[in-house]
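Project standup — Tuesday

K.O.: blocked on the structure for the chain from last sprint. Re-posting the sequence here as requested.
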Amino acid sequence: MSDTSRIMALDLPMLNPIPEEVQKYFNICNEKLGMVPNVLQAYAFDAAKLNAFSTLYNDLMLAASGLSKLEREMIAVTVSSINKCFYCLVAHGAAVRQLSGDPKLGEMIAVNYRVAPLDARQKAMLAFAEKITKESFAIEERDRDALRSVGFNDRDIWDIANVAGFFNMSNRVASAVDMRPNDDYHAQYR
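H.V.: unblocked you, prediction finished:
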């Protein structure tokens, strides 16, 4: 059994002192989320790595897109479910609950997105994310056409691919270092 007080299995000490720009970012997290997510604390051993991770994450998950924030979080949960990433299932499951207002939706997607009450557009999006995760080499034009047929444009397809790709990367890192989600996530938005 792992030590739940640790944020990960590696002993990489946080920068000391914490650079001003990192502290500002952590303060914003505390204001908006009531905590600093453990994934950010895990990256805080190196300001450049934290900045690279958080810049890409914020661009993919929060910037303007044809995908809603909820849809991007649904992709995160679907990919994390396939990869069995404990950290991301818990953290992004909470985000799905928050954004949808549905305390069951995150768990439904985590177990099997096909049983969730999703529209055809969202199911096609998650099927594409699943294929990226399981067999990206097998994606063909007909897979992209399936997304176009339910209303996604090429920019949306780019965003789906990038969000799925990001979570495939971050799932593998989180699992490899036994990253643990903040305890607060477990009870949020239920």
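K.O.: great, moving the ticket to review. The mean pLDDT is 95. DSSP finds ten helices and no strands in the chain.
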